[in-house]
Amino acid sequence: MYRGLRRHWPGGWLWLCLCGLGYPATVPAAPLPPVTLERAAGEVPLSGHLSMFFDRGAHYTLDDILSPATAPAFTPLDDGLFGGFTRRSAFWLQSRLRVPPGDAGEWWLVINAPWVEDLQVWITPAGSAEVLWQRHSGILAPLSSRDMDISLVALRTELPAGEYQLWMRAAGERAISVQASFWQLQALAESRSRIEGLLLSLFGMMLLMVFIGLLLGWRLNDRGMVWYGVYVFGMMISGMSANGMVASLLLPEHPLVSSRLSAVAICFSMITASRVAVHMFSLQQRAPRLAMLIIGLGLFGVPGMLLAVAGYYGLIAPVVNAIGLVGGLLVAGTVCWSVQRHFSVESLLYVSAVVLYAIPVSMAILQFFGVIGGTALSPLVYQSMAVSHVFMVLLGMAVRISSLRKIEREAELERLRMAGEMRILLEQQVTERTWALHAELKARRNAERKLNDMLTEQRSFLAMVSHEFRTPLTVMNLVAYNIGRRHDDNDETREDVARVARANERLVGLVDACLSNEWLDSAEMRIRTEWQDLAPMLRELCEQRRIAAGREIILTLPEAPVRVAIDTALVQVVFDNLLGNAIKYSLPHTPISVSVRQLASGAVEVSVSDQGPGILPAEQAQIFDRYYRSPSVLSHTGIGLGLHIVRRVVTLHGGSVWLDPHYRQGARFIVRFPPPAAENLPAFSDASPA
User: Fold this and answer.
1) CA distance linking residue 244 with residue 119, whole number of Å
2) Model confidence over 444-493: pLDDT tens digits?
3) DSSP strand E in 326-376: where?
4) Which DSSP helix (H) or strand (E) runs through 482?
5) In 27-86, where do the E strands start and end?
6) How far apart are CA 281 and CA 283, in angstroms?
7) DSSP state of 635
8) Per DSSP, which regions of 388-433 are E strands?
9) What is the pTM of this model?
């Protein structure tokens, strides 16, 4: 930092940078002695031999500087130029050179100006305005503007013996810093080869840590390690850009892209650094508000990246550096808080990592704002501290992961121990339960055996009683018939005989239903089917019901015989029940329709229709259940077994029976017998086919 500014305006650099007012007027001082270029030294630094003039508004040209009428006053510098951040201004530097006769010849002017976009250099004879040598370079100039393809600006010049004046003009939208030295070629080549080789080694180590972080993050499913790898990658690109290696190695002919890439890398590092800091100290669990604050500060890097890509990074450079300083203070406070509450090897490593990187970054930010001056850290020292920083972070995360794995292993062992105990307990419970189930099963089998014996006795008794009822009922029917014939002329007697006949018929129906149901329930029952024509049986049943009930029954048969494989006795029960229901639940003057048709598949369908009240939709799913009777027909005789027997008999034949849901004039039941090819197939569903 030059003496005049700090003498007359302490802290003025920071204030003027933030307010955009420029620098105060310099105070003339005694001229510095010339620097002597001696070949034996190999390197002749210009530190301590430079004077500076701040060109507010960048109005001066070299002619103005050399003209006695407009020449400004230069102020000596203690070291190189660390001008901080300026916009639309320029810095002029001058140094006096002396070349002894024995040291004349080729000299290399090497300038370290990492963020200077426009750098112009002239050499004039002492006390003369004649330009002997000039060059134009900077980070926005291609590498072809340099005489040596290295990361620094290296310019070759031939200097005869004598005294000269070196002039440099530095301008740009970034923090301006300039350090310069004169070199002999061999010494320069050896120095740059050694330094850049070490820098490449350091960047190689950082690249290795990038892969380690990403690989461990992927394998361990740890987002913190992934953020660490991305963070180190951003630091590596930023460091390579600051040292000019991106331009010299990757983008030699695209300096503008290289400059913008470096700005993007700085903003990107700010985003990832906030994520890594939050993860290092587990702030999302321990201090969620502080974690949100740090992440929020880091997110300012997103618009910074967009502006950097568009070439407007200079507009937000002060904000980015201010956020970096505030974020650094927050992380430092977090370090103290974390160590105080959770002291461990992991926290000590994180403390070391933060200290190693906070020192150079804080110095760079404070120099950016002009708060401090002095010699900047060399690129080698800076990158060494950066590599040590990321290495310490990696060690801390490794220790953290190791601790978590140890806790997981202990938890896994505890789970295995508890699982073993639970397995033993479960085996005991299973054994006890198995014995209990065996005992319960044995008791149930005994109960089922007794129940089956009781049911067998009950069925046998019911069948015997039902069978025995048939003989007296037949006698009663015959006696009533004879009485009716003998007293045919007596109306009262005929009415009594008719009532006896109806009661007898009801009892016969009940007995037949009970006998049919018990026979179907018998485990020894097997149907015996034979192929026969269905028409004769239906004609006989319809004729019997027509005579007995005095009702009109319309039978529709196809011309060809309708052959089906049936048990005649059982199928007679089916159609006798259906005809009986149709007669019972329809009005006396309405006809009953029986229709037979043979389908194309070979199946046979028989429908029995009446014109009665029909069956309500809510009851249609229950009409085939055993003992079910609709509340609307309780006035009619019956016990709810007829349709149940119908479905069981049809199912035994491999067919199906259903109530036609589309018939609206009454009720229509459809019985379908399977085609011949499906005789031995499983029974059809009771539901209506689609």
Assistant:
1) 15
2) 888 888 887 776 666 566 555 555 565 676 667 677 767 776 777 777 77
3) none
4) helix 379-486
5) 35-36, 43-45, 51-55, 75-76, 81-85
6) 5
7) T
8) none
9) 0.51
